[in-house]
Model the fold of this input.
Amino acid sequence: MFKEPHLEELIVKSFSDSISHEENVILKEWLHELPENLRHYRELENIWQLSHLAFLPDDIDVDEAQLKFMQIIDKKKFIDSGLFVWFQRVAAILIIPLISLSFYLIYSQFFQSKISNIAYQEITSPLNMNSKLNLPDGTIVWLNSGSKLKYPVKFESNERNVYLSGEAFFKVHADKVHPFIVSTNKLNVKATGTQFNVEAYSTDTITAVTLMEGKVNVNIGNSIREDLKPNQRMVLNSNSNTYTVLESDAQHWGLWKDGILAFRDQPLSDVFKRLGRTFNVDIQAKDPVIARQLYRATFEDESFEEILKLLQISAPIKYKRVVDSKKDNNIYNKEKIEVYSSK
Done:
């Protein structure tokens, strides 16, 4: 993949803001050679971000950080298949959090002694990938593809506040004295120790909370509060400014964190939306009747191509791929698939 033997080092230097002007020119030339080069760079950038908790600049040993990062790359990449295939395999087994743990162990001693004010870390789960995080209080979070979570490096207040954009599954460490609060654009979820799933993509009109076990309080604005019980799902529609609480099998709403896509009598429009986020494609239903048709299936080890074929067999649809187009900055648009009725 790399035409220059030291390009890996230049990439890492660019992440740590230690790259020189001359080195930056070389790197930019390489990035503009091929669209694949920029994609590789973005994937490495996501890994770097996931590998670094928020810490003070004076505490960073840049050379040491670069060395560790390069060692991770060297140990993991396959000579014949290249970094791109390696990243795909990493995505399949959700191994990214191990890299984050390595850097956390290296720098954790600095955090305890140097941070006096509240510092926040923001983690973005790369497209096509799910990420597992361990928060400072022992809470475990799974972030779905393209989702963001902002949280303090250390919980020091009476409440454990985190901020979510996207979808995440929370396994909250029990602490009745210090409530755990998930804030989204539309609602807040308050818990003391439980497991639940939150869907809060900024581009969606639907925000949902599904409770697997324990109990949570869902607050909408300053006046509406709902207490959910296990296997209840609260769905807020921002267009109509209304919400409903439904009985639902909560388990299947969190299966995505294990690499399983489960659909239970959901409209095909919702199925296409979730598949699009999982595989980073744009799937558009061109027939409103098809978009509303309910669908039931479970996909576990199938590739995107296999899922498309199964959909075409099990639902009255046919699909067409739209040829990728290149933007002015030499980056290809997201792949688009148009779905039509087969009748």
